[in-house]
Amino acid sequence: MNVNKRIGILTSGGDCSGLNSAIRAAFIRSQALGYELVGIKRGLRGLADPNPDFLILDNVLCNESLLTSSGSVIYSNTDWVSSTIGQGKTTEDIKNSIYDGYQNLGLTGLIFIGGDGSLSLMKEFLIENLDINIVAIPKTIDNDVAITDFSIGFHTAVEVVSNSIENIRSTAKSHERAMVVEVMGRDAGFIAMYAGIASGVDAILIPEFKYSIESLKSKVKSCYDSGQNHCLIVAAEAVENDEFKHDEEFVDGVVKYSQLQYRGIAQYIAQKLKAAGFNSRAVVLGHTQRGGKTAIDDRILASAFGAEAVNLIDSRNSGKLLCYIKGKIEAINITELQNSFSKKISKSDICVNIAKCFGVYIGEV
Ligand code: F6P
Fold it and tell me: Which residues line ligand 1 at a C-beta cut-off of 6 Å?
C-alpha cells in the first residue's frame, strides 16, 4: 500500500461506548476512498512514541460486531500529556514528538476522537503549531463538548443509567426506601437529567442548579404522603453545597489531568435523609456507565462522524471538529472555539422543561 494513502485514527481520554462504531465507519469509508486506516494505540501517547504500537485495521476486525461493542480496540489514554510535563518535558518537546510520530507513520491525515479535555490538548499540540491534516470527533458520556448537540457515548450511558434505575426501583419498592443514585458527568448534569427523566425519578440534582436539603426532604416526604412507598433521587457526581464540597477531604488529594475525582455526593444525601428519618441508601453506578451494548443513536452518530471525518481528511479540510447540530453533521473550525470546549445544561434544555412539568425536584430553578 502506498504510504501516501494512509490515515491514522486514535481515541483520547476516558472511553465510552461508540468509539468502535466510529472506528469501523472510518475504516469502511477509508477503504472506499483507497486509504489504509491505521489505529494508533493509546491516544497521543501512542502517536508520540518513537516506536508506536499501531494496528492496521481490516475487514476481520471491523466486522459488524465492532459496531455494538463498547471500549476502544485501539485503547485510550488520559494523562500522558500532564505526566510527560511532570517528567520535565516542555510543550515544544511534546509537539515535536507528536509531529515526528505523524511523519514516521507516513500519515496524510489523522482522525482524533476525544472529549473536551482532549480537544483542548489537540488544539494546543496539534493544530496551532503543526502542519497536520486533522479532523476531530467528539466523544464523552458526559455530553459536555461545546457546540455539538450530542457526543458519541452519551446515549448509551443514559440507557445504562436508566436501566439501572429501573432495577433499583424494584428494590426501593420492596424495602420502601429512598434511594440516591450517583451518576457520572463531571461538571455537567446531562446524564443525570436525561436518565432521570427517562426513568421517571422524583428528584434530580445537577451541578448547574442550586438545591437545598430542606426542599429535597420535603420532596421525599411528599412522595410518601402521596401514597408512593419509595422515592428515587439521581445526583450528578459534581453536585455540592455549602456543607459538602469536592475538596481533598473527599478525593484523598488525588488530582488527575487537572481534574478532581468526584465522589461522595450520594452517600452525603442518603445520610441527610436517614437523619431526617427516611430509610435511605446510596448507589454509585461508576464506570458501568462507560460500557453496555452501544445504543442505536450512538451507533448512527458515530458512523456518521467516522465516515465524514475520512471525507474531510481526503479533501484536506483540516482543523475541524465534527458536530451534530439540529439533525445535521457540521464541521466547525477548532480555532473558532477559543477556549470553550465544554458546555452545561441550560434552563431551556428540553429535559428541564419536562422535569418541571412532571413536578420532579431539580433544585431551586
Ligand atoms: O469524562 C468521562 C468520565 O467518565 C467522567 O464522567 C468521570 O468523572 C471521569 O471520566 C472518570 O475518570 P477516571 O476513570 O479517569 O477516573
Answer: 14, 78, 115, 140-142, 184-186, 237, 256, 261-262, 290
3.30.565.10, 3.40.830.10, 3.30.450.40, 3.40.50.450: CATH of 6-152+292-336? 3.40.50.450
**Overall pTM surpassing 0.90 (yes/no):** yes
The catalytic residues are 142
DSSP H stretches of helix in the chain: 19-32, 43-48, 80-86, 91-104, 116-122, 154-174, 190-198, 213-225, 248-251, 265-275, 296-314, 350-358
Beta pairing class for 36-40 and 54-56: antiparallel
Delimit the domains of the chain by residue range: 6-152+292-336, 157-291+346-357
Q: Tell me the CA–centroid distance for residue 258 and ligand 1, in Å.
A: 12
- pLDDT per residue rounded down to tens, the chain (365 residues): 455 699 999 999 999 999 999 999 999 999 999 999 999 999 999 999 999 999 999 999 999 999 999 999 999 999 888 888 888 899 899 999 999 999 999 999 999 999 998 998 888 888 876 789 999 999 999 999 999 999 999 999 999 999 999 999 999 999 999 999 999 999 999 999 999 999 999 999 999 999 999 999 999 999 999 999 999 999 999 999 999 998 755 445 444 444 678 999 999 999 999 999 999 999 999 999 999 999 999 999 999 999 999 999 999 999 999 999 999 999 999 988 776 789 999 999 999 999 999 999 999 88
Burial 5-41 (b: 16+ CB within 10 A, else e): ebbbbbbbbbbbbbbbbbbbbbbbbbbeeebbbbbbb
The answer regarding whether domain 157-291+346-357 maps to CATH 3.40.50.460 reads: yes
Closest Cα to atom 12 of ligand 1: 14
Query: How many angstroms separate the alpha carbon of residue 78 from the centre of ligand 1?
Result: 10
Ligand 1 centroid to residue 174 C-alpha, Å: 32
Beta bridge pairs of residue 180? 233, 282
